[in-house]
Write a structure and sequence with these properties.
homotetramer, Rossmann fold, N-(1-d-carboxylethyl)-l-norvaline Dehydrogenase, domain 2, 2 domains, six-stranded parallel β-sheet, 13 helices
Chain lengths: 290, 290, 290, 290
């Protein structure tokens, strides 16, 4: 079988590399050519335009956001070039609205479409250790399972409509952002009484909150290290907005998400646009005059 | 050495029992006699009033809140009856304000005072597996270390003023409440799109949020089990108010804590006063018409 | 001069009627024909489609929202049919984004475009007593001034870009919504102590808050009369979302607006979609168990 | 009849002066002597200590806060010195909790007690133009009506328990603070699009919001004049806390009040403790990078 891969940013490159490394045939396209050259050097075929991936068995895409996804998949003709029976796994964090729209566009063309966003960072992707959230038509998912298994340590089926996977991913990212804000406020409180951030966080992240989301971001808050950004504030804000937009469509109040958006907007509006989104903790401290 | 123990609620009884079980001499007092009888059956001495514990080497107290602590320790004469040199470890979650006040009252009488609130539930207490947050004069803490080690699997020194420990405990409880609200909102969002609560929480609490705070409360949210309460909403509200009061005193804005207070007040005001505080998730769902 | 008028809802019909009543020649179009017939009976000319208004001197439009505005003005060919030199006054509450987009589309065709949203209800419109917020190229506004004066008791110039008027109108509506929520919370508080809503509101709306926004909505809160809706909750939510969307684009945190959106979503999600938006006060009371 | 007056701050001095000016016999006490001397020069009698006012017919007090009220009225013996039948009108903005407590202490001594907080500034007080919110036993209020009429242009009876008046006053102050925050956010939004603050506020405060609360504070926001403070931020924060404390006691969520507290705490924590509370608008702008 042949796998097409579109979108070779940090995550995409790592996943495509993983597929090549485990012996799959992979045909790639990317807007900028450098990442393509690296993968070609490792055995990938290169397509000169998105439509050049229309004949593969499985198409995987990992594009930056809704706009890039729409541009490459729909506007540049890839969907029209796709052969009936092709199965497209969209690994990106896109909006629930776009997921629904894409599902319909694929259905009209007899192309399979699976929502398959992932949890994990590039190093996990390179090692095939991602967690893949999967949603779509069960028969289609069954056919794609070998591909899913090739990129993830575990797949988590969440429903038979592709957007089910996206809302899970979006809600998960909201939970990470909430963990950051939570630590930011807790540290502002304890610091105001003279307890150091690392003293406080060391306790909590090794006991009740001994989980990756808290350990990773807690360690950054403890040393107040906010640049260079692993995940820049504007991307974090984009994700929080995805949650709020999805919630808005169903009239779901999310007061925590409101706070998160405001903290990230304040961070960016006051010069922190190049900070990691964990710098929400800096905003919490600043509000308290710390 | 002789240990005095005051406040034999669920937690207090478990800790006192642990001390007896590991061979310590323990003298107890409690407002209601039943718990006293149980411990006497296991070898404890009983005092007929709080002041009867004034001659012990170490006094441990685990009283329900500020009012009970003040009533028993100060108003009923225990402090006045205490011999100079006695060391009092206050295990309860009391306000920062009361901690400061007690520290001063002990200092005036040459009695040691250590803030020593604990993380852990009664079963952990019975097994000596608590995490003990410790703050106070270092020399005093050093003398009390054997007692601290007898009740906890680990002690976490956080400062040389007793209230340092209380603010850490209060901030930790705030983090737990935030985790609950976070899951409540995330589940409301995903449920509104047709993803079941347990499907969603199973993923997150086994990956990025694989930590006790999320697992314990996530499992309750997944099955919407809010009664009988392990930790009733009014106690949760009390703890959130401790955080807000401590923050208020230092002008530290905590927007998440505001949301938590409002959710818990709404829960209680609308008939959920007998629910576990995790029922904040029910409030989040109800606001969305779920 | 001839005036074209598009969008004959309650407000549009009243304004067009006012223009006819003061002796202007008016040519109208509306999606549903009934309102057209009423105005024709009063002397208006009817166009069979939007493009039929392309030759007037001044085009006034009062369409329900962004989608309707885009559909009628752009998609159905009116803009393409408009003669160069025509001046379009958009009276509707549209988004800042659409205002910018329309300004550009008009500029490309040498058609004047003025943002001219209004404050006031249908009875004020019928009497020519609206307040008209005006923004656009000063020379264009000067030419349109007689038309503006015909519909309003006063015009308020706020800038030379049409969207300036829209952001003012959007911010004004946000202020009304905030006044409602403010009264809702204040009444919940005072009612919880046994003070009746009308007793409380009578004082405030006749002293410090003796202004139309408070008097109109305060009188509805005092008698808990939320249906039939003068301004239904979903329209209010639309307006609050316009504020949040405009704020989002510029990274402006608006914590009050967040609360408003959540209250309106909760109102609608729990069955109050047919209520007036002033029923936010009912939500505030319900949260307190009142 | 003889009137006693305690608490000669700006407001108290103006009210006592008004009483003297309209021909009443007034006996005064104040912590600092200067204000006493001014009133004595205008015909007042001076008492050397609070208890010296125990024989008057009506006692009016206008003390700064709960602590001062408790200190002067209760702790310094005034209440114990008061003759049975004396009627005490408490004009100050005190907590609901203290109002209840004082009502009980007066009842035990057969002394009348009326909650009578006022709306209005010193100039209105000097002219007898205050609005007096009145609550207490109806027969007692009836006896005191001539005194109430002497200080206010209108009295507003709100209930038969003194704290009814206090919760009304507290809720009214909350409404003023909400109006400030509302304008602050609205101005941040419109400024971010290039509309000047005074342009925007001129429209709203002359139309829908043409009321004293908006005009007074709107004019300060328009010119960004926050010092010297007419009403300093710490006093505003005190009042918002009175609202939150009263709400807390009855489990009434007030999300707007939360925002207000956070804005005022942030203002003070970041160096604005000497600003007028209207500087909340500055905080709103700063969060948006304006």
């Amino acid at each position: 079988m042949e796998i097409g891969f579109i979108g070779l940013g940090q995550m995409g490159k790592a996943i495509a590399g993983r597929l090549l490394g485990s012996g799959h045939r992979v045909r790639v396209w990317n807007r900028s050519p450098q990442a393509v050259q690296e993968l070609v050097a490792n055995g990938a075929q290169a397509a000169s335009q998105p439509a050049g991936l229309g004949k593969v068995d499985f198409l995987l895409s990992m594009l930056a956001n809704d706009a890039a996804t729409r541009a490459v998949i729909v506007d540049q003709g890839l969907l029209d070039a796709a052969r009936p029976g092709l199965i497209h796994l969209n690994l990106a964090t896109v909006s629930v609205g776009l997921a629904k729209e894409l599902a319909e566009l694929h259905r009209q063309r007899n192309i399979g479409y699976i929502g398959a966003p992932v949890f994990g960072r590039p190093d996990a992707a390179a090692a095939g250790k991602l967690h893949v959230v999967v949603a779509g038509d069960p028969a289609t998912v069954a056919k794609a399972q070998p591909v899913i298994d090739a990129i993830g340590q575990k797949s988590w089926p969440v429903g038979d409509q592709p957007e089910h996977a996206n809302v899970v991913k979006i809600a998960g990212n909201f939970m990470i952002a909430s963990a950051i804000e939570t630590m930011g406020e807790a540290v502002a409180l304890t610091r105001s009484y003279g307890v150091k951030a690392d003293t406080f966080l060391d306790i909590l992240t090794n006991t009740l909150f001994a989980a990756p989301a808290y350990k990773v971001y807690g360690s950054m808050i403890a040393v107040e290290k906010y640049t260079p950004a692993g995940f820049p504030a504007p991307l974090g804000l984009k994700d929080v907005r995805l949650a709020l937009t999805a919630a808005d469509a169903n009239n779901v109040p999310m007061p925590f998400a409101n706070v998160l958006r405001d903290s990230l907007m304040e961070l960016i509006a006051t010069g922190g646009g190049d900070n990691d989104w964990v710098a929400m903790a800096k905003v919490a401290a600043r509000r308290a005059g710390l």
